[in-house]
């Protein structure tokens, strides 16, 4: 140090560098050398970087008073976060090169008054948008709005929009309002008015901006301040935009302003720009807050709403009649029916339900509806089933109701659909007729409709207390070709006419003759004669004659025998005519020229006729009987009732009562006696 002070003739900068080296670290000596040789910039660097003494550096800068020294001091002070001192140093140095660092540090430390001074100096040195913008911002932060307004009205390069946004975000709405007015930016200006409580001015600014976001902001602020007149003006410009409608509604609802909201939307649907969402949201609001008005609203505007969304609102608030109406209007008949079933106390009406059920597509709903009606409205079940008769499986319906034990409720319905001859329907009706001892309806049912378990029904009624029911059992056995069983039942109940008809319908010769023998056994002469009449084609003449002769029933068998004789006589006469005609034809062939000589001789006409007569014999005279066609199966075939005939043989011909009337008085085979025509064309 002593050499440094005493000596002068040496290379000071070079010696200072050596002193500053890591080997020596002689910082004071280096500072003294720089100071002695007037290298103030290097000297202040040594103070700041090596000795790290801002105080000595400040004193040195004051003595040196050079811009470069002040600039380096300011930069060091800025690094040490001594913003005010740094700005003062930069001002003394008239240095604007580090304005970005200065701005950042000043805003961090909020030394805006010093920053204004620095930026005013800096904009004289450098033309940069950042400097002007930050100066405007600093004016606003200092609340020096007059100077700020004067500055922005003059020539400047400030980004007023960015500064205004920045101030707006920080809550300096007055300053931001001035900036946005100068641009102008009406959307932001409206926001500023809103935050300042200037709602009328906010509405005017929003009208100029005319965008949904601005209107929404104004509306929300007005609602929060309960300025509903301004809020409605803003709201009318929002509700025409479907994307913003729900947010608006939510804001009103959060504040509990339901009446004002409904009034706003109700006013909106009268406008030209009303849309589906507007009607829909108004409907949902009615569902929430004024359910008594919802049904009328839906009826008037069903075609303009988003019906599924309204339905969800109705279901959420348990408005089931309205939900049913909307489902029907939307052609969702299945959902409408389900709703009425699930919420019948409020949603169900019979006429509406029947109308809906005629249009449902899910067949399972029909059977669910049946269970519902059985449980809730059983007396109306027939009306429902009649309305949907062409859409349901009748067998399944009957089975379902049978399981629940309510078949009598649907008798009218089953009678209506019995025409389809469905087994389950027939079985159900027949069971009900049996239980109710309605033999007339039961007989009519089994005669007209045959698709049921006939044998089971017959077994059920064959021991019934009512005679007519047992007769129906006989009828069922006969229809199922159990003729013997039917006849035996008829015998037990002395229903001999039914037994005769059964034997006749069986076509079984053995059964018919067995029945005839039974009448002989019980000595019932009238039934014996009637059986011969009814089973005429089945009973062999020799059997009938033998039974009558052995048991002295000749009077009763005589009409039958007269008829047999008359029939064979007629057949023989017809055969004779046929033979005569054939002989005439052969004679004509012989009289004509013919060289053909037959190699056989024709049969004797008398023998030929006898052979044909043998073929025409009654059934009892042949080993393989063939019942005569057109037998006496029609009870009315003999003619009218003659006086004096037994009452058990109706329509007995007069010839049967008086055999002489049938044969006439000639007694010859060549004479044709008087006769009547029997059924099948046979003469009597």
From TrEMBL:
<dbReference type="GO" id="GO:0006886">
    <property type="term" value="P:intracellular protein transport"/>
</dbReference>
<dbReference type="GO" id="GO:0071439">
    <property type="term" value="C:clathrin complex"/>
</dbReference>
<keyword id="KW-0168">Coated pit</keyword>
<dbReference type="InterPro" id="IPR011990">
    <property type="entry name" value="TPR-like_helical_dom_sf"/>
</dbReference>
<keyword id="KW-0175">Coiled coil</keyword>
<dbReference type="InterPro" id="IPR016024">
    <property type="entry name" value="ARM-type_fold"/>
</dbReference>
<dbReference type="InterPro" id="IPR000547">
    <property type="entry name" value="Clathrin_H-chain/VPS_repeat"/>
</dbReference>
<feature type="repeat" description="CHCR">
    <location>
        <begin position="1"/>
        <end position="86"/>
    </location>
</feature>
<feature type="repeat" description="CHCR">
    <location>
        <begin position="236"/>
        <end position="382"/>
    </location>
</feature>
<dbReference type="GO" id="GO:0005905">
    <property type="term" value="C:clathrin-coated pit"/>
</dbReference>
<comment type="similarity">
    <text>Belongs to the clathrin heavy chain family.</text>
</comment>
<dbReference type="InterPro" id="IPR055358">
    <property type="entry name" value="CHCR"/>
</dbReference>
<feature type="repeat" description="CHCR">
    <location>
        <begin position="385"/>
        <end position="528"/>
    </location>
</feature>
<dbReference type="GO" id="GO:0006898">
    <property type="term" value="P:receptor-mediated endocytosis"/>
</dbReference>
<keyword id="KW-0472">Membrane</keyword>
<feature type="coiled-coil region">
    <location>
        <begin position="565"/>
        <end position="592"/>
    </location>
</feature>
<dbReference type="GO" id="GO:0030659">
    <property type="term" value="C:cytoplasmic vesicle membrane"/>
</dbReference>
<keyword id="KW-0677">Repeat</keyword>
<dbReference type="Pfam" id="PF00637">
    <property type="entry name" value="Clathrin"/>
</dbReference>
<protein>
    <recommendedName>
        <fullName>Clathrin heavy chain linker core motif domain-containing protein</fullName>
    </recommendedName>
</protein>
<feature type="repeat" description="CHCR">
    <location>
        <begin position="90"/>
        <end position="231"/>
    </location>
</feature>
<dbReference type="GO" id="GO:0032051">
    <property type="term" value="F:clathrin light chain binding"/>
</dbReference>
<keyword id="KW-0968">Cytoplasmic vesicle</keyword>
């Amino acid at each position: 140090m002593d050499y440094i002070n005493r000596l002068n003739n040496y290379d000071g900068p070079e010696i200072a560098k050596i002193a500053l080296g890591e080997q020596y670290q002689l910082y004071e000596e280096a500072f003294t050398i720089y100071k002695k040789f007037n290298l103030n910039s290097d000297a202040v660097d040594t103070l700041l970087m090596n000795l790290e003494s801002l105080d000595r550096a400040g004193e040195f800068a004051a003595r040196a008073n050079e811009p470069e020294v002040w600039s380096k001091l300011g930069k060091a002070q800025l690094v040490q976060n001594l913003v005010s001192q740094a700005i003062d140093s930069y001002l003394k140095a008239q240095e604007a090169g580090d304005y970005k660092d200065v701005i950042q540090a000043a805003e961090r430390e909020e030394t805006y008054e010093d920053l204004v001074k620095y930026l005013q100096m800096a904009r004289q040195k450098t033309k940069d948008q950042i400097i002007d913008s930050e100066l405007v911002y600093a004016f606003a932060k200092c609340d020096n709005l007059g100077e700020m307004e004067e500055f922005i009205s003059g020539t400047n390069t400030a980004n007023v929009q960015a500064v205004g946004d920045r101030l707006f975000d920080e809550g300096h709405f007055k300053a931001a309002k001035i900036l946005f007015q100068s641009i102008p930016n009406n959307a932001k200006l409206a926001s500023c008015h809103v935050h300042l409580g200037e709602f009328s001015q906010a509405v005017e600014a929003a009208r100029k901006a005319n965008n949904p976001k601005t209107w929404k902001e104004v509306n929300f602020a007005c609602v929060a301040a309960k300025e509903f007149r301004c809020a409605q003006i803003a709201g009318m410009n929002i509700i025409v935009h479907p994307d913003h409608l729900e947010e608006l509604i939510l804001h009103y609802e959060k504040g509990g302003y339901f009446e004002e909201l409904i009034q706003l939307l109700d006013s909106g649907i009268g406008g030209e720009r009303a849309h589906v969402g507007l009607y829909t949201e108004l409907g949902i609001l009615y569902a929430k807050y004024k359910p008594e008005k919802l049904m009328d609203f839906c009826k008037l505007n069903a075609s303009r709403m988003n019906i599924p969304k309204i339905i969800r609102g109705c279901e959420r608030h348990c408005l089931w009649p309205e939900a049913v109406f909307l489902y029907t209007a939307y052609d969702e008949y299945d959902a409408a029916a389900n709703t009425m079933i699930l919420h019948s106390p409020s949603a169900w009406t019979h006429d509406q339900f029947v109308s809906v059920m005629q249009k449902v597509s899910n067949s399972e709903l029909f059977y669910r509806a049946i269970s519902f009606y059985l449980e809730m409205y059983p007396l109306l079940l027939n009306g429902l089933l009649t309305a949907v008769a062409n859409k349901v499986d009748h067998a399944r319906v009957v089975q379902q109701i049978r399981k629940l034990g309510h078949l009598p409720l649907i008798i009218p319905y089953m009678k209506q659909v019995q025409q389809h001859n469905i087994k389950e329907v027939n079985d159900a009706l027949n069971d009900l007729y049996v239980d109710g001892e309605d033999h007339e309806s039961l007989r009519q049912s089994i005669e007209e409709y045959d698709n049921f378990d006939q044998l089971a029904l017959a077994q059920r009624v064959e021991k019934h207390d009512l005679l007519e029911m047992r007769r129906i059992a006989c009828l069922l056995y006969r229809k199922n070709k159990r003729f013997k069983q039917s006849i035996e039942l008829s015998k037990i109940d002395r229903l001999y006419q039914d037994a005769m008809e059964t034997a006749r319908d069986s076509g079984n010769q053995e059964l018919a003759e067995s029945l005839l023998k039974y009448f002989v056994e019980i000595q019932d002469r009238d039934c014996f004669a009637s059986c011969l009449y009814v089973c005429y084609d089945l009973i062999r003449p020799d059997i009938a004659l033998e039974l009558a002769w052995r048991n002295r029933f000749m009077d009763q068998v005589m009409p039958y025998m007269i008829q047999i004789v008359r029939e064979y006589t007629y057949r023989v006469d017809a055969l004779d005519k046929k033979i005569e005609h054939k002989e005439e034809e052969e004679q004509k062939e012989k009289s004509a020229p013919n060289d053909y000589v037959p190699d056989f001789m024709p049969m004797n006409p008398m023998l030929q006729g006898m052979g044909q007569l043998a073929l025409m014999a009654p059934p009892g005279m042949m080993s393989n009987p063939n019942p005569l066609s057109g037998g006496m199966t029609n009870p009315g075939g003999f003619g009218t009732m003659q006086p004096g005939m037994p009452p058990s043989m109706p329509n007995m011909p007069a010839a049967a009562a008086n055999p002489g009337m049938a044969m006439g008085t000639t007694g010859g085979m060549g004479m044709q006696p008087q006769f009547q025509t029997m059924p099948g064309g046979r003469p009597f």
